[in-house]
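Risk mitigation, structural track. In case the binding assays with 4-O-methyl-alpha-D-glucopyranuronic acid fail to produce interpretable data, a predicted complex structure has been prepared as a fallback.
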Amino acid sequence: MKHILLSLFALFTTISVHAEDGHQLWLRYQPVNKAKVLCDSKSATIQIAKQELETYYNGAQIALKLDATMPDDDGYRFDGSTLSARREAGLLYGTYALLRGDMNMESHPAYDLRLLNHWDNLDGSIERGYAGESIFWKIENAQLSTFNAQLIEEYARANASIGINGTVLNNVNASPKMLTTPYLKEVKKIADILRPYHIKVYLSINFATPMALGDTKTADPLDKSVAKWWQKKAKEIYKLIPDFGGFLVKANSEGQPGPGDYKRTHADGANMLADALKPYKGIVMWRCFVYGANHKGEDRVKQAVSEFKPLDGQFRDNVILQTKNGPLDFQPREPYSPIFDQIKQTPNMVELQITQEYLGQSRHLVYLAPMWQEFFSQVNPKQLRGIAGVANIGLDKNWCGHHFSQANWYAFGRLAWNPMLPSDKIAREWLQQTFTRDPQFVNTMAQIMAESREACVDYMMPLGLHHIFKFDHHYGPEPDGFIKSYPLEWCPVYYHKADKQGVGFERSSKGTDAVSQYRKELARTYDNINTCPENLLLWFHHVPWTYKMKDGSTLWESLQFHYNRGVITVETHHNIWHNKMRHYIDEQRWREVDDRLHHQVENAREWRDTCLKYFGQFANE
Ligand code: GCV
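Fallback model:
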């Protein structure tokens, strides 16, 4: 820790004259070096808190106190002179709250589980990563090579500063190698660095690992040799990492192995793993992102409920179901996943995607907090056990590829702590810490951030259109996309169903009846074309081109309006940044953002032109 602070200090002294590369994220505190910090404990966590406060706190004196009467583990209270918490973690979170100028005297997290999910492969590549290679995994000369320990500590500090307390270190499309001893030893080294920052490590596992490694003949969860293998493996893991968090599992989904390969259920599979982890208090996070297996042919957005609802109540108490916010796949706008209405006895976690797979990746400025808040306005945050975010972090100097993509990492952490925090407040907090406190800059950019997600929906897929991306890499439009050898659920034409009558997917009671998976009042609202919110119209209905929208325009006119509005909005954003924002901040970051905004405008125009040309063929027939 000491060396990080010293090197950061050295950096600060040169910052004012040199360009900034964004590596410091929102942690650009200026050293004050005047606070006296009183505390008894010498633990590593307290030492971190102490050093941060001694260096950066702008008060004369502060005491850190462990207080067993505090209501939860991670919350903190500050009375003007003493920062109290039940555990050291709370003191650390309170420290960072003070440093960001948060005057909230008492704060408690909504969830115990606030996790990042890294889709990092063991060869260093990252699935849906747009900011360079993995910070954890690297192969050199065909050998596993170790990570940069200082970088991992910086990562830990950044996460602790926003309250994240767990991380899954590898891709859900997991390699069986992950659980071999050389890799587990690396995991132990990472866990040792993260521990003082109160971040637990978790691993994604490949369900067929024992068989793939040649240790068992099958991966059948009801086979004794298989269960035994997992128990032994759990013992090995916990010997190395006593506070290991548990497993994240993608099973029988997109080609991954799972209990279904042996005609067993997801509950059979999850419970077998849960039993292996139970003696050590480990958990299993079992993903509900499944389609194309048992319910092949059914509307894809219905399949998770069809698969998991009959299993509700059959899971061990250390299993949590982890489900994406929407029923399809991290689209710019989706209704929430009805799993959250249907699964009542098993704890649920929501999985959000910080990396912008479908929202312009790290090339578009799209602030995601408003989208996540839309989810929390539909699904009561209190009914969830935890929250996971698919990380957008890589080896790029600025961690996230786009300077403004850092805001999504930051916002995820802040919302995981308190899902009710307004997205505008988070944006302002982040802008002030990351760029400047100048109110002109902050007001303007907060406004741009607030508009950015709706602009993206407008220029990509307005009015409930979805999944009309280019194949595989999901960047740019391909509304005519159809590949015969691909599953239909990967083809854009399956989703928009444009023909000369209209456009949209009929999921009402007249169609696939996906609406019936929602709670009653909403099911009724979505079912009726006249009450269905217009921003989800084509998600739930196949709508005639001449359909009259609420403002009197036809559907086709409205579609054109939205695509054009999206483009105009990002053109305006770019103009403002280009012409007005330069003198507020350092040249390097200004230029890098400017380049990306320029590109974003071009890409938005491509979306508009391609989609309107394609849909126009039908609409104007
Ligand atoms: C990790 C989508 C993505 C895949 C991802 C998958 C999942 O299909 O395109 O890259 O795989 O979701 O969440 O499992």
